[in-house]
Structures are given as structure tokens and as C-alpha cells.
Design a protein that fits this description.
The complex is a heterodimer. In chain A, 76% of the residues lie in helices and 1% in strands. Chain A has 25 helices and 2 strands. A two-stranded parallel ribbon of chain A has the order 1-2. The longest helix of chain A has 37 residues. By secondary structure, chain B is α+β, with helices and mostly antiparallel strands. In chain B, the strands form 4 sheets. Chain B has a 6-stranded mixed beta sheet, sandwiched between helices. A 5-stranded antiparallel beta sheet of chain B has the order 2-1-4-5-6, covered by helices on one side. Chain B is globular and about 75 Å long. Classes of the chains: A mainly alpha, B alpha+beta. Chains A and B meet through helix 20 and helix 21 of A and strand 7 and helix 4 of B.
């Protein structure tokens, strides 16, 4: 989820892309031979990384299986309508929370603004499935709220109506509460970048503050807001834990059930392909909305003083910023902590330590692997700015748009095929069996993680590399360094901090990843995320909290890093 | 003198877009050369080709008699024994001044020798106390000198500088270009720089190559570029000046609107031949008592002098430098006398207009 941090680099990345596009217009490519190792290497990696998506799409032409026609007759319409409603509800929720908070924090002055500025990001640390379990525990019949109400009013079992959180609208609220920071983050950056002069011009021309906001500020920030919304919606489409737990049938739960319950990989792949089409439609809409983004940039930025809010206005602003923070993070986090304290004695055992170890192992391996590949791809792109390499890097970074469930299906099918082929070949020729060498081991899981999260590291490394001017490379070359030595002696030391960030972000993302881990993990291999899911599914919500708290705590780290850079930029603006 | 750098018929193109066309020149050991030209003329591309960052489509580049570049073949930059200073200095932000300067020194030299050489250079650039500082703690001028020291440390055969002073402010630029010339001459370094600033080129270089539209228009010293431009384009780019029409009277005099001008007439021009004469602002001397007086149409105060724009009867305009206490109002007549030391005359081709 925290590839949202990545978004901060959106601008830098698109600039990098522009300069590269300018360069590949020159057919520079003939400068390097066809067998050039950089170009071949980068393209090979991209090819391997495209396998899951290609696999999933190849099943579109497979023809319907019996299961698929059955699904089409019964639940498919339900999947589509639930998914669409979810997208609509989350759009409404994230936009209203994100835009209002971003506007208040970037343009107005009120008590606590500096704190809200970064604390509003905290819900990012809360995976949607965890907040969903927590609210269920708090709001269900035996939970503290209903019990309290019953005691207070002396109600009995059937005397009152209480909304059912485990429903479609509940899922909308949960997802909005943790996904609004994407919109907030980008909208805030856009509002801060806007020249105060545009707003002042609008005021001088006779438009009031509200009219100026809707006619000038909002349209100017629109591309950024839509980019943030797109990220939030990608997470919505990818969500598995929340909708599964709330019993809302969407594509992700459908894929999971078809794969496990019905054991039909073809139908699962076809459902995945449909989900992918929705994701790509989203990306197309976002691109379309940004087609004229360059007109929205003003070169000169005149900082206007913040608009001071007084009395009632200030109180309203504080409440508006406090509510999402409270319900998106503070309340569920405190609840989780209190559960964790209650159950710590019995839950913190050897098995728990094993979980922590497994999670850390997976996350750090995936993060390092992703970093290594990202360095290779991004550096290859710097050395060989040609179309083929460009496209290869883009292909390898598309994974972050693809739901974990889909990647799991796309990874499992080819690896299983590979295993079968290898096994039968070995049996035929050597009389030995290799078993599930790839599909049943951590290899599959690692592959899926890197496919899903490589974009995060590539984006970070790419952005960091673009800040190093080409003259640095050339100076080092003229002083006797080979390209590899330039990378080792100049680039890596300069990029130390962004490289660490890249590792950290993938680490946290892997730690939180639920559906791909659930589908691909080796038999009897558990992680914190999977254990949280299992315990919560067994209605042992309090017991799930020890694992959940660990995930949230680790998730806070990159949020703090991000907020640090935000509060720093906030200071220089004043 | 030994020819250190030889450029023979070099052309560079990006696809169909030809950037440098058939450029040839050579530079002797210890000389400072400069490629001068407007932005986009191909001078930086040429410099980068010498460095080995670009591949020529035709021609040869040799350094010390060894062929380093030819069509489609380039020796990698790190193997050429060249030093390069970039427009943005490109100091490594993660290294101290000392480590920046020592970056190109090979470990096999040994630590003592590296430290010795580095300190020697820090002395040379007069920054001996800055070795522990980081690039962001230095001023622009200091960064420039560190970049120079870093490029000089491995004792390159040839030093290349790409617009080395353009990111500094004007005063610092002049002071540093003098200082850089002193250092290069003191160390006997052969250097080649690129600039769009004529003053800078004249101040620092022994030889200046004027590049116009990817072609070498003239390779000469600054004095000759100014006073003996090879063609109209050179005359147009170097210095201020106006071409005014004239008619050859005899071998040594030309009749113009400003009167009779004496000097050598270009070959192939006989009596009655139509020519254009280059009039520089310093060719017109302001004399209040002069019988020739022209109307002032524009004036530009520069502190120590004025540059007046004067209108000829044919309404063509010429420039004149006058000392700053000769303050004349617009529209007033300004007396001038002609003092053309170096007559620059171009034969007017049929259909050429001035």
C-alpha cells in the first residue's frame, strides 16, 4: 500500500521519462551492438516479469469451462456490481476526506495544523483487512459499543437496530478510511505548488473564496487528485482481506474461491483477466485525465500567506482533520493495542516468534532482490536510453497495478507447468523426481512479491538516478572509471538514502501482503499477515491482534519517513 | 612544437541530424584552444566527441599521435587520459574536497603519493584549507577550482572544459578565467574549452575556433578573428560592427558614405567593384570638430564610455564608442572621424545585400 510514497516521485519520474523520450527519438540505438549485455539483460528480466500477466490474459481465449459458465450464470454479475459499487463508494469517501483535509492543511492556518499535516498520513500504516477486523470486533453485538448502549439504555437483544458493519457499505467505509491518504498526499502537494497568484487573481476578479476554490484551485489540482484516486482505487480492486471477511463477493474473493474451493485454474485465470481489464481501464482513465498536465504547472510560485481561520471556523477545521485521523488510525490502533496486551501472555510464544522470523525473512529477501533488480533495470536505462529498454522497464513496473490475487494465479500456473515438465523429464531420463521445485516453495512466493513490488524500487531508484546529473557520470568516466565503477563509486554512495528507502518500502509492502502469500505460501508456512487473517476468520479477533499490531508498527516506519520529508518541506515553505 | 590534438575531417550526426560537419584543426602541446559559437552550433558536441562520449560519423581524432576516435569507433573515455571540467562542475556530493580531487588518482600510487599530489593541487588552486569540506559548503568559484584540480590530478594529456565559467556571475567569471589561464600555463597543460562568450575566449585561449552551424568558420588567434575575419559570418559574430557598402576607387581606397577609406582591397576587386566594408565601433573616433557629423539615434551608457548608434544619410546605422563625458542627446549630430587600421572588406556577390 505504501507505494504511495512512490507517488511523491511521480513528478521526477515523468521528467525523467520526457528526457529519455527525447533521446530515443535520436536513433542512438545503433551505437550499441544487438547483443549488448545491458539491453539484453534488461529485456530478459522484463520478459520474465511479464509472464504472470501474459499467462492470465492468455486464458481469455481458452474458452469457457463448465465452472466458468456456472459462475457466469450465478455470481459473476454480483462480482461486477459489488466491485463497481465499492469503487464508487471508495471514490466518494477518499475524495471528500482527502481533498478537504489537504485544502485545510495547505491553505488555511488553524491550531494543530502542523501536526495534522503529517499525522493525517498515519492511516496508511493500517492495512484495510486489519482495520476491518478491528471495527468488527468493536461494533458487533458483543463488542464494547453495543454492550455499552444496551447497558445505558437498558435495551434487550432485539430492541434496537444497529448497522451491520460486515456489509458492502462497511467495506466502503473501511477502505476509504485507510486509502484517503493517497488523495490527501497528492492533493496537498498540488495545492502547495499552486501559485498563490492564481487564487489572488481569481479573488481580485470578484470570485469569493468558495467560488475560487471550485473554479480555480480544484481544477488546477485535478490531475494530482485523480492520480491519488487511481492509486486508492487500485488498492480497492486489489483488496482481498476486507471483502472476504465482510462477505462481499468481488473479483478477488471470486478468484480465490474458484482457485481453492472449485479447483479450477482456468476459470480463476479468466476472472483474473476480467479484473485486470478493470485495472487497466483505470490506468487509461488516469492517463487521459493527465494528458494536459503540463499546462497546470506554473513556473513561478508565489507563496501566499495561509488563510487564518478563527473561532468556529478553526474548530470546524480541527474536527474535520481529527475525524479521519481518529477513525482511520487512533481508535483501531488503541483497540488493537489493548487486545494485544490482553492476549500477549498466551500469544507471544515460540510459534509467534517463528511467524515474525518467517515474515522478516520473506520481506527482507524480497526487498533486497527487488533492489538489486531495480538497480540493474534503472541503471541499464540510464546507460542505454533506447525504446526497447524503456519499454522493458515500464513492463517490469506494471506489477504494482495488478492485484496480488491475480499475480498469484499468474505465477502459479506457469510454475506448476514448469515443475510438471521438469519432473516428468527427470523421471524419464534419470529416474528421479524433483517434486514441486518452484511452485511449492518460497521461489514462487518470492517471484510474486518481486513482480508485484518491483515498481516501488524501480520508481525510487529511477527518481534518485535522475537527480544525479549526467555530468557526474562523465566526470567519473573521464577520471578513469568504467560504467560499473561509476555505479559503485559514485551512484550508489550518492543514492544511499533512496536505496534504503526502496528496501524499506518493499519490505513493508511484502510484510502486509495477504492474498498472494495466502495462495502461494509453501504448505504449513505462515506469516504475520496470514496468521492475522486465519485467526480473524476464526472469530478470534483479540488473538489476531498481536500479529496485527506488529504489522501496523512496522508499517508506521515508512509513514514517519514520508511525514518527515513533508514537515521539512512544510518548514521551508514558511 | 609537437601537435598534441589533431582533429581531421570530423563529422558528428544524430540520425539524419548532422551536428558537426567536416571540422579539422590541431592544437600544439601547451596551448589553450577554445571553441566559440552561439548555442546549438555543435561546439559542445565536438568537445564531447574529443572526450569520447560521442561517436563521429566521419573523420579521425588523435591525441599524442594515437588515433582515439574514427567513424563508428571510439576508445572509452576512461582510457583516453583526458581531464574534463563540466559546466555544472559535477563535484561528487558524497565526497570531501580532498576525496574529490583524489578520485582519479589510482590506488596503486600509494596513499602517501596520492595525498601529496592532492595537496599539491589544492595549493595550486589556492584552497589548501578546504580539503575536509564538502562541495555544498563551497562557493561557486571554489567549486569551479576544485573541479579543475580534480580534472588535473591524474596529469591528463589534454584538459577539456565545457562552458567552465558560465554558471558563475560576471565579475567572478573574469577573475577566474584569468586565474585558470595562469594555472594552465604554469602547469604547461594543453586545454580545450567551449564557450559562447567571446571575451572569455579571447581572455583565456591562444587559439579560438569559431563554430557556426556545425562548421569551423575560422581557427585563429583572437586578434585575427577580430581584425581579420575570414568571411562575413565571422565578422558578423565577432565583436560589434556593421557592413556598409562601398565602391573600389583604386587598389588602396574605397569610397563609402563615410568618405574615402584607405587599405588593402581583397583580391579580385578592381576599380568600380562593389564591396562591403566592416566598420567596428572603435573605427569611428568621436571628434567634436569633425566635418562629418551623424545623427544620434540611440545611446547606451556603459560607465567608462558611451556606445552611440548613428544614422548614415542612407539611413543605415553604425556604432561609435565615445568617452563617457561626451554626453550627447538623441537626435543631436555627433562629429566623427574615420580611423580604420585594419580594413576588412568583402566583395559583394551578385544579389548579396548588406
Amino acid at each position: 500500500m505504501l507505494d504511495g510514497v512512490n507517488v511523491a516521485y511521480y513528478g521526477a519520474m515523468s521528467i525523467a521519462r520526457l528526457t529519455l523520450i527525447r533521446r530515443w527519438c535520436n536513433p542512438f540505438s545503433r551505437q550499441w551492438p544487438l547483443w549488448d549485455p545491458w539491453r539484453l539483460g534488461v529485456m530478459l528480466v522484463a520478459l520474465v516479469f511479464a509472464v504472470p500477466v501474459l499467462t492470465v490474459f492468455s486464458f481469455i481465449f481458452h474458452g469457457d469451462t463448465e465452472v466458468m459458465s456456472h459462475l457466469a450464470d450465478t455470481v459473476l454479475l454480483n462480482y461486477v456490481s459489488n466491485t463497481l459499487w465499492l469503487v464508487l463508494g471508495v471514490s466518494y469517501g477518499t475524495l471528500s476526506i482527502g481533498i478537504v483535509c489537504a485544502w485545510l492543511v495547505s491553505v488555511c492556518e488553524f491550531p494543530g495544523r502542523r501536526w495534522f499535516q503529517w499525522m493525517l498520513l498515519l492511516p496508511m500504516a493500517m492495512p484495510a483487512y486489519i482495520i476491518a477486523y478491528t471495527y468488527t470486533g468493536m461494533l458487533d453485538f458483543a463488542g464494547p459499543l453495543q454492550t455499552g448502549l444496551r447497558e445505558w439504555f437498558g435495551w434487550g437483544y432485539d430492541d434496537y437496530w444497529f448497522p451491520e458493519i460486515r456489509s458492502l457499505w462497511g467495506a466502503m467505509v473501511m477502505l476509504s478510511l485507510v486509502l484517503y491518504p493517497y488523495v490527501y498526499l497528492l492533493a496537498r502537494a498540488a495545492f502547495m505548488q499552486q501559485s498563490g497568484a492564481a487564487l489572488e487573481a481569481s479573488r481580485v476578479l470578484g470570485a469569493g473564496p468558495w467560488r475560487s476554490f471550485f473554479k480555480v484551485a480544484l481544477p488546477m489540482a485535478r490531475p494530482a487528485i485523480i492520480a491519488g484516486l487511481t492509486l486508492a482505487l487500485m488498492e480497492t480492486l486489489a483488496d482481498f482481506g476486507t471483502v472476504q471477511y465482510f462477505g462481499v463477493d468481488t473479483f478477488t474473493t471470486g478468484i480465490f474461491r474458484t482457485w481453492y474451493g472449485l479447483g479450477d485454474s482456468v476459470a480463476a485465470a479468466q476472472l483474473s483477466a476480467m479484473l485486470l481489464v478493470m485495472v487497466f481501464a483505470l490506468v487509461v482513465v488516469e492517463r487521459y485525465s493527465r494528458r494536459r498536465v503540463r499546462y497546470h504547472h506554473s513556473l513561478q510560485r508565489v507563496r501566499q500567506p495561509r488563510y487564518p481561520l478563527k473561532h468556529r471556523q478553526a474548530k470546524l477545521a480541527v474536527v474535520a482533520c481529527l475525524l479521519p485521523l481518529l477513525f482511520g488510525f487512533l481508535v483501531p490502533f488503541v483497540q488493537l493495542l489493548s487486545w494485544a496486551l490482553e492476549t500477549a501472555v498466551e500469544m507471544l510464544d515460540a510459534a509467534y516468534l517463528q511467524l515474525v522470523f518467517n515474515s522478516l525473512l520473506l520481506a527482507s529477501m524480497a526487498a533486497l532482490l527487488a533492489l538489486f533488480l531495480a538497480l540493474f533495470m534503472a541503471y541499464g536505462q540510464r546507460l542505454r536510453p533506447v525504446l526497447a529498454v524503456q519499454l522493458a522497464v515500464r513492463v517490469s513496473s506494471m506489477g504494482y497495478a495488478i492485484p496480488g490475487t491475480v499475480i498469484a494465479v499468474g505465477v502459479m500456473i506457469p510454475l506448476a507447468l514448469l515443475d510438471q515438465t521438469l519432473d516428468s523429464w527427470l523421471r524419464a531420463n534419470w529416474g528421479i523426481s524433483s517434486g514441486l521445485l518452484f511452485s511449492g516453495t518460497l521461489v514462487a512466493l518470492m517471484f510474486a512479491y518481486v513482480v508485484r513490488f518491483l515498481a516501488v524500487s524501480i520508481g525510487t531508484v529511477e527518481a534518485a538516478l535522475t537527480t544525479i546529473r549526467p555530468s557526474m557520470d562523465e566526470t567519473a568516466r573521464s577520471l578513469g572509471c568504467s560504467p560499473w565503477q561509476v555505479l559503485r563509486n559514485v551512484h550508489i554512495p550518492i543514492m544511499r538514502v533512496p536505496l534504503l528507502t526502496a528496501v524499506l518500502m518493499v519490505f513493508v509492502d511484502v510484510l502486509k501482503e495477504l492474498p498472494a502469500t495466502l495462495i502461494l505460501r509453501p504448505f504449513d508456512f505462515n506469516t504475520l499477515a496470514v496468521r492475522t487473517y486465519e485467526l480473524a476468520s476464526d472469530e478470534r479477533l483479540a488473538d489476531a491482534s498481536t500479529a496485527a499490531v506488529a504489522i501496523v508498527l512496522v508499517g508506521i516506519v515508512p509513514v514517519l519517513l514520508l511525514s518527515h520529508s513533508i514537515s521539512r518541506s512544510g518548514k521551508t515553505d514558511e | 612544437m609537437n601537435k598534441l590534438l589533431e582533429i581531421e575531417h570530423i563529422s558528428v550526426a544524430y540520425g539524419n541530424n548532422s551536428v558537426v560537419r567536416d571540422v579539422s584543426f590541431s592544437l600544439n602541446e601547451g596551448d589553450i584552444g577554445c571553441l566559440l559559437g552561439p548555442s546549438g552550433c555543435g561546439k559542445t558536441t565536438l568537445l564531447r566527441t574529443i572526450a569520447g562520449f560521442e561517436t563521429p560519423t566521419a573523420g579521425f581524432i588523435s591525441i599524442n599521435g594515437m588515433q582515439f576516435s574514427s567513424a563508428g569507433h571510439v576508445l572509452a573515455p576512461e582510457k583516453r587520459r583526458i581531464g574534463m571540467v563540466f559546466q555544472d562542475f559535477a563535484l561528487f556530493p558524497h565526497l570531501s574536497v580532498f576525496d574529490n580531487v583524489a578520485f582519479g588518482l589510482h590506488k596503486s600510487m600509494g596513499r602517501v603519493a596520492i595525498a601529496q599530489r592532492t595537496n599539491e593541487l589544492l595549493q595550486l588552486i589556492s584552497l589548501p584549507d578546504c580539503e575536509g569540506k564538502y562541495p555544498h559548503q563551497l562557493s561557486g568559484g571554489q567549486q569551479q577550482r576544485v573541479a579543475l584540480a580534480r580534472a588535473l590530478a591524474p596529469k591528463p594529456d589534454l584538459l577539456l572544459m565545457d562552458e567552465p565559467f558560465s554558471s558563475l556571475d560576471v565579475e567572478l567569471r573574469q577573475q577566474l578565467s584569468r586565474e585558470v589561464r595562469r594555472i594552465l600555463k604554469q602547469e604547461g597543460i594543453t586545454a580545450m574549452l567551449v564557450t559562447h562568450d567571446q571575451q572569455e575566449a579571447f581572455a583565456i585561449a591562444d587559439y579560438v575556433g569559431l563554430i557556426l552551424n556545425g562548421e569551423l568558420a575560422q581557427w585563429d588567434n583572437g586578434y585575427n578573428l577580430y581584425h581579420r575575419p575570414a568571411n562575413r559570418d565571422v565578422a558578423d559574430f565577432i565583436g560589434d560592427g556593421v557592413l556598409i557598402p562601398g565602391e573600389v576607387m583604386c587598389d588602396y581606397s574605397i569610397e563609402t558614405e563615410l568618405g574615402l577609406i584607405h587599405g588593402k582591397v581583397p583580391q579580385g576587386c578592381r576599380e568600380g567593384c562593389f564591396v562591403d566594408v566592416l566598420i567596428r565601433p572603435d573605427d569611428l573616433i568621436h571628434t567634436d570638430s569633425s566635418p562629418i557629423a551623424l545623427e544620434v539615434t540611440e545611446k547606451f551608457f556603459r560607465g567608462s564610455d558611451f556606445i552611440y548608434t548613428l544614422k548614415l544619410p542612407s539611413s543605415q546605422e553604425v556604432l561609435c564608442i565615445a568617452p563617457s563625458h561626451h554626453n550627447h542627446a538623441l537626435g543631436e549630430p555627433l562629429g566623427i572621424t574615420l580611423d580604420v587600421d585594419h580594413l576588412v572588406v568583402f566583395k559583394r556577390e551578385a544579389g548579396t545585400m548588406t
